Amino acid sequence: MPSTFATVPTSHANRYLQQLCKHWTHKLEVSFTPERGVVGFPGGTVATLEAGPEGLAVRIEAPDVEMLEEMKGVVARHLDRFAFREAPLRFDWQPA
Prior knowledge:
- The protein has helices at 13-24, 65-82; strands at 3-8, 29-32, 36-40, 46-52, 55-61, 94-95.
- Strands 2-3-4-5-1-6 form a 6-stranded antiparallel β-sheet, covered by helices on one side.
- The protein is α+β, with helices and mostly antiparallel strands.
């Protein structure tokens, strides 16, 4: 299963993690705490978010490379909406 990882530098990682997870609870399978969130998307894609002192760590696993690329954009766009004061956030995607 292809996967990617990025640590997004921000001092508001807990806030953005919780906002994003709460936003997606209406349509997706989501579990989260202030420090960690897991979001299950249709088709088997999973995004895991972890808030830490350096920023928000984001890991995405998808069934194929095309879906992985699409989901990188989905996650980044949604986080940028919640982080509008510091958007665009910097995502340095790396293979996981």
